[in-house]
Amino acid sequence: MMRRGVAAVLGLVLVVPGSAAAAGPRHHHEARARVWVTTTDRAELLHERAPVAFGRGASTQPTITVNPDQTYQRMDGFGASITDSSASVLYRLAPRARDQAVRSLFDVKNGIGVSFLRQPIGSSDFTAAAEHYTYDDVPAGQTDFALRHFSVDHDRAQILPLLRQARRLNPQLTILGTPWSPPAWMKTGDSLVGGRLKDDPKIYDTYARYLVKFVQAYAAAGVPIDYLTVQNEPQNRKPGGYPGTDMPVRQQAAVIERLGPLLKKASPNTKILGYDHNWQTHPGDVGSTPPGEDPETDYPDQLLGTPAAKWLAGTAYHCYSGDPSAQTALHQAHPDKGIWFTECSGSHGPDDTAEQVFRGTLTWHARNLTIGVTRNWGKSVVNWNIALDSTGGPHLGGCGTCTGLLTLQPDGTVGTDAEYYTIGHLSKFVRPGAVRIASTSFGTTGWNGQIMDVAFRNPDGSTALVVHNQNDDPRTFAVAVGTHTFEYTLPGGALATFVWPRSVIAHPGELSLTGATAVAYPPGDGATLAIDGDASTRWSSGAAQTPGQYLQVDLGTPRTFRSLAIDSGGYLGDYARAWQLSVSPDGQHWTTAATGTGIGQLTTVNLHPTRAGYLRLTSTTSSPNWWSIADLRLYR
C-alpha cells in the first residue's frame, strides 16, 4: 500500500451539505463525517479516507454516543517546544526547506496547525550551546540584583525568528514560558545544575522580576507570553547534567506571591501556572527528599492551598510518572482552577527498530495524551522537542533517547515521527477555543484493548471526534449523535479523527445521575460502575445470563425521563438477550414500564414521559454470555 504522508493532509475544509469537498455521491441534507487515519505501519499518515454518512437507526456494535449538550473544559491548543536544540536543527536546513518544515508544523491548511508552544526560559537539557545559560549570567562570586546584565540576545538568532514565523502561520498560537533554572547566583551551590533558590526574600523578589523581564523582552521581540511557570519539574533534585532546581512548595509559593502583582501591572494577559511536573511524584524524587523534609507527594494540592493560589490560573503536568487520572482528581478538589499538560517525550530502547519506536510511541501517546489527557480536563497537550536530529540531539546532559515531532535525517531530509501525528490528530482539527463534549469511551489509559475516544465542539459549531483502537486487531464500532449513526472499522493500533459540520441532528438532553446509587444481583464487579458515567468501567454479572438477574438504581430524587440507554460497552455479546424495565416511586411498589429483546451493545428504550425514583432492569431469559452494563443513561 502506498504510504500517505503530510503531503496528503493539505487543507481542512469542513463538509457541509452540497459541499464539493466531499467525495462520492451526495444527497440533500445528508450528514457526513470526513475521516483522517494514521496506522502503526505508516501505511496511512493523517490520510484522508472517503467520508462516512450518518444513517438512522441503531448499531449492534459498541457505540460511541456523542452528547454535545454536556460540556467540559475549553481547549487552548496542542504542540511542543522550540527548544534551543530544535531551533539549531531547523537552522541546519536551507531557508526554503526550513520554511517548508515550519509550515508543516504550524500551517492549519498545509500542515497540522500546532497551536501551543512551551518555551524554555534559558537553557534546558536540549541546547546546542557549548554551555548552559540563563538570561543573567555573571562570573562566579558576583551577583546582579539590579538585573543590569539581563538579555535575551541568545534567542534572537534562531529561536525568536522561528517563534515569530510560527505566530504568523497560526495567529491563534499560545505560548508558555518555563525556566529550568534561575541564574546560578540566585541558588545554593551557585550552579544551574541542582540546588535551590537561596532562602532570602531579596532573592525571591529578584527572581520574580527576572521572569517579568523575560515576558517583557519577548513581547518587545514580537512574541507575547500567554502563560508562565516558575520552575520546570520542581521535585527533580538530581537532574542529569542539565539545569534543574529543587523548589519546594513554600519557595514556589513565595515566588508566585511576588510575581503575581508584578505581572498584573507589567503584562496582565500573562497567567501563571503552578507545579509543572509529573502526574505523581516520581519514586526517585521521593527518595531524594532531604532528611526531615516532606516529599510533598501532593505538591499541586498543597500549592493551591497557599495564598499564592489567588495568582494561579491552574496547574501544569508532565507524563513521566503516574497517569492522567491525577488531573481529574485535582480538578475535583479545585474545580475553579484549570489544568494544562505541558511536557512528554517519546523515547525508545537502544535496540528498538524504527518500526517499534513509531508503533510504541503512537499507541502510548494516543491513549495517554491525545485522549487520556483531554478526557481528564487537560486544556492543552504539549510534547517536548518539536524537532531533533537522527541521534536524538543535540542535547547537553539529560535525555539521550528522546524523539521529536520532526527528525532531521543524515541525508538532509526531514521525517515526521509518531508525535507529529498524535499531536496532529488534535491540532489540525480541534481549534483553540473548542470545548470538549461528552462521548462514551471504552478504553483505558492502562490499555484494555478497547476503542477509546474524545470529542470536541469547535468555535464554528463543527464536531471533531478522535478515536483510537487500542487492540492489535481491527475493531468495528459505531458513532451515534441523537438518532443518527454510522459504523466504522479501524485497523489495530490506528488513530483517527472524524469531523462533521454544525449539525441539524436532534439529540435528547441527558439527565445527571449524580447522587444515584445502585445494587445488583449477582453483585458482580459492583453495581455503581454502571452509573458512574464512565463506559470503560462496567457492572457485570460474572456468570451466564439467567432470568431474575437485575440492576436496581435509586435515583436519589424522582426524575422524569422519556428514554433510557442501556450501554453494554465494548465487550461484544454482553447485552441482555431479553429484559424488563420496572419503575417505582419508593422502591417498594413496582410497575413494568417496558420489555424487550437486546440485539447489540447499545439498547435504547423509548417511553412516554415517565416519572420514577427507582429503576430496575431484570434479565428475563438465559444466555451463555455474561450480562454487562457499562453505562446507564436517562434522557428527557
UniProtKB/TrEMBL annotation:
<dbReference type="InterPro" id="IPR000421">
    <property type="entry name" value="FA58C"/>
</dbReference>
<keyword id="KW-0378">Hydrolase</keyword>
<dbReference type="GO" id="GO:0016020">
    <property type="term" value="C:membrane"/>
</dbReference>
<dbReference type="InterPro" id="IPR033452">
    <property type="entry name" value="GH30_C"/>
</dbReference>
<dbReference type="GO" id="GO:0004348">
    <property type="term" value="F:glucosylceramidase activity"/>
</dbReference>
<keyword id="KW-0326">Glycosidase</keyword>
<dbReference type="Pfam" id="PF02055">
    <property type="entry name" value="Glyco_hydro_30"/>
</dbReference>
<dbReference type="InterPro" id="IPR001139">
    <property type="entry name" value="Glyco_hydro_30"/>
</dbReference>
<dbReference type="Pfam" id="PF17189">
    <property type="entry name" value="Glyco_hydro_30C"/>
</dbReference>
<dbReference type="Pfam" id="PF00754">
    <property type="entry name" value="F5_F8_type_C"/>
</dbReference>
<feature type="signal peptide">
    <location>
        <begin position="1"/>
        <end position="22"/>
    </location>
</feature>
<dbReference type="GO" id="GO:0006680">
    <property type="term" value="P:glucosylceramide catabolic process"/>
</dbReference>
<dbReference type="InterPro" id="IPR013780">
    <property type="entry name" value="Glyco_hydro_b"/>
</dbReference>
<protein>
    <submittedName>
        <fullName>Glucan endo-1,6-beta-glucosidase</fullName>
    </submittedName>
</protein>
<dbReference type="InterPro" id="IPR017853">
    <property type="entry name" value="GH"/>
</dbReference>
<comment type="similarity">
    <text>Belongs to the glycosyl hydrolase 30 family.</text>
</comment>
<dbReference type="InterPro" id="IPR033453">
    <property type="entry name" value="Glyco_hydro_30_TIM-barrel"/>
</dbReference>
<dbReference type="InterPro" id="IPR008979">
    <property type="entry name" value="Galactose-bd-like_sf"/>
</dbReference>
<feature type="domain" description="F5/8 type C">
    <location>
        <begin position="493"/>
        <end position="636"/>
    </location>
</feature>
<keyword id="KW-0732">Signal</keyword>
<feature type="region of interest" description="Disordered">
    <location>
        <begin position="277"/>
        <end position="298"/>
    </location>
</feature>
